[in-house]
Amino acid sequence: MGNSSLELALLYIAVLIVVSRVLGEAFLRIKQPAIIGELLAGMILGPMMFGFIEVLPEIELFILLGVYFLIFLAGYEEINVEELVKAMRIRVIASSMISFFTPFTLCLLVFSQVMGMAWAPSLLLSSVMALTSLGVVVRIVSDLRIAGVKLGLNLINMSILSEFMGLLIASASTQMLVQGEQGDYAFMAVKVLSFFLTSGLAGYFLVPRLIRRVERIFKVKAASFATLIAIVLLFSYLSSLAGLHGVFGALIMGFALSRTKWDPVIRGTVDQLKGFAYGIFIPLFFAGAGLYVTRDFMKLDVLAAVAVALAVVVGKLVGGFVSSKLMRVEHRSLIALGQLAKGGVEIAILSFALSIEAVSIELYSYIVLLIFFLTIAASTSLNLYRRIA
Q1: What is the pTM of this model?
Q2: DSSP string covering 180-214
């Protein structure tokens, strides 16, 4: 029997899992984020370098599951709804807005005016470039030994608010892209808000009870784990029915469940999903994101490419420095450099933008490479600071 598409996909998935895990481990050992190695795995195996692997429909399914699980876990672990409410202080809100909207505004001007893109994709890409990896901010706070004091908590809350604002803009621009720029925005807003409200309430009140009940009643192994996976996928599907990408359904579910971290049943069930997702699906997602990168980024106008890079770097450095000054933080340069780092949420939104053709393959490839090098630069700066300090 010859190689069918399914058999070939199995081989590709096996190779991607092994190479992404090996490179992820290699980068961790040199104190760089594992996602850098996982992205690099896709770029090496894909058309960017050797072209050994192509993205088959079966691989796309694994990549899609990876992004849903990643975004759910980001919502569950990174953004605590109760802490978000506590963070609503004038100084923290103002710092968050400066940190986010400085790079956002510069990127929006470059994408819309310099590159001539429409407003909806410009908003979506600008929100991606303005986001900061919360994990990097937590690491900075830990390095400065202020994790347990009010200042450190305020810095983390500032980053949470910034990420929340970015995700709101990303969801709004997503709806604009799906509906078209001539759509009924009033109806669109009502539909999106209704989905957020109903799914948030369901996740807040009903889902924890359902998981606990399943854990108590069912005799089969991992019943609550299977229930959680089904819920994440169900809300991802419902999100697509509301006109949003499925990642927003997974994100809302993560937000809603974040209040139950104290519950051993919920925590244990999410930990099962975390091990399952980070073992297979999330590395496959990042490697898959690297598979889409091509050498076509060299077709971009050089001045436009430089303008994008400058907008991100200058915006993040200035926004990070000014916001940390407003928060009365020392080591402002370190905070500003840390703002350059990117994480999984940004790659997930960017991959979605490519899937709906909101961004060209040339620009997608360039931005992924830019994120790749900016994250290395930010992580290296933090490592140097730790040695000096």
Answers
A1: 0.83
A2: -TTS-HHHHHHHHHHHHHHHHHIIIIIHHHHHHHH
